[in-house]
Amino acid sequence: MTFEIFVFLVVVALAFDFLNGLHDAANAIATVVATRLLKPVTAVAFAAFFNFAAYFLALAVPELHRVADTIGKGLIDKDLVTPAVVFGALVGAMFWNVVTWLKGIPSSSSHALVGGIIGAGVAHAGLTGVQWGGLNKTLVAIVLSPTLGMILAMLIMLITSWLGVRATAAGAE
What we know:
This protein is mainly alpha-helical. It has helices spanning 3-34, 40-60, 63-73, 83-103, 109-125, 132-163. Helix 4 crosses helix 5.
């Protein structure tokens, strides 16, 4: 790979990262801004700080490396990864992010990137390049994570509702 191609791919990756932030940041801060818990500038500052801090958390927690390894090496055969495949994956994910953003469809940039990687790998080498074990783990996690999050949130809401069933506004003072 030439230096020019490398620089070009880095620029495309940074463009994806920018769109990722543009696409997902609104979802991350919408509730605290809409409820007036935080002012918009404060909410954006919090989001920026914690997105930056997440990198260092990922370095400190080895389990998070397995997720990155699955995305980087476990979806398509690593020998198939060429600059063209990387470019296709990033452009496909960016296109999907822009389409869903313009149409107001909630979607995940991470899921778009997984789809971009699979799509670019299949376009490059056909279905034989897909590592089905890694893809299956990823697809199960994509469905299971929000489902478990919803169930846990509902349980917390139910428990706190029952704990405060006899509470009054006067008692909150």
